[in-house]
Amino acid sequence: MEATCLVVLLRLCVQILAFPAYLLWYLGIWEPLCKKLFPYFMSVMAISYNKQMSDKKREMFSNLKDFASPTGALTLLEIGTGTGSNFQFYPVGCKIICTDPNPNFQKFLNKSLAENPHVQVERCLVAPAEDLHQVPAASVDVVVSTLVLCSVKSPEQVMKEVLRVLRPGGAFYFLEHVAGAPSSWTLFWQQIYDPTWICLFDGCHLARETWNDLEKAGFSELKLRHIHAPLKWHPTRPHIIGYAVK
Fold first, then answer.
1. Strand, coil or helix: what is 200?
2. 3-class state of residue 143 by DSSP
3. Which residue numbers delimit the Methyltransferase type domain (predicted)?
4. Which own/partner pairs from 150-154 qualify as long-range (CB within 8 Å, at least 24 positions apart)?
């Protein structure tokens, strides 16, 4: 009970410090402003994140070719493509369908494409991960999500869409920051920062237990590991990494 009261008190203190952002949100100014500025923030953050997580990403994507179609071609759909920071880790000749709900990422995406000519983009869709109706059922070999499931409105609906667009035997690759361990200091601070973090960073949740959504989704096989990412800010260190097979 004492811990809960302390969380509420400290959460209020953080919200008071972020009052200008909350005021802008209340006036309807913050959200459109955030949509325009967030891609710039992510373009910087993605470079730093890739430097610190490059070994983990290479390890995670090392068997992508195992899920290529019988012809040897690999069609990959990335949800929340953002700046295209994963392109460098994809195999040569990989065909990509990019999706993101924020069209302001486009110029950063174009830059990544120019820097990674080994991949081919079939098309770019402005669409939330919960609604991929423009992508036919059972049409892709792999779906990828990195640092996306923290900010979707309905993880359950995303899982349904992932399973729908994947062909039988296809795989869903994920690398996501998640809630810390129960009773840990990390989770304690996540719970304090979470409401303000959601407001400031385009709907991103610090304390989501995303592994539960993956376990309940109905994949035939799930390879999931909990890791502590080598990041400077403790509340974002807990991660899950792995892939699930339809």
1. helix
2. strand
3. 77-174
4. 150/176, 150/177, 150/178, 150/204, 150/205, 150/206, 150/208, 150/210, 151/80, 151/201, 151/202, 151/203, 151/204, 151/205, 152/80, 152/128, 152/203, 153/128, 153/203, 154/130
Query: 52-84: per-residue pLDDT in tens?
Result: 999 999 999 999 999 999 888 999 999 999 999
CA-CA distance, 195 to 44, in Å (whole number)? 23
The CA dihedral of 31, 241, 179, 28, to the nearest 10 degrees, is 0
The CA-based dihedral angle spanning residues 220, 221, 226, 227, taken in that order and rounded to the nearest 10 degrees: -130
How far is 207 from 238, CA to CA, in rounded Å?
Answer: 10
Overall fold of domain 1-245: Rossmann fold (3.40.50)
- Check if the beta carbon of residue 70 is closer than 8 Å to that of residue 189: no
Domain definitions of the chain by residue range: 1-245
Q: How far apart are the first and last CA of the chain?
A: 42
Does residue 61 contact residue 89 with C-beta atoms inside 8 Å? yes
Nearest residue to 223 (alpha-carbon basis) of 157, 175, 164: 175
Residue of higher predicted confidence among 2 and 228: 228
Residue 176's H or E segment, with its range, is: strand 166-177
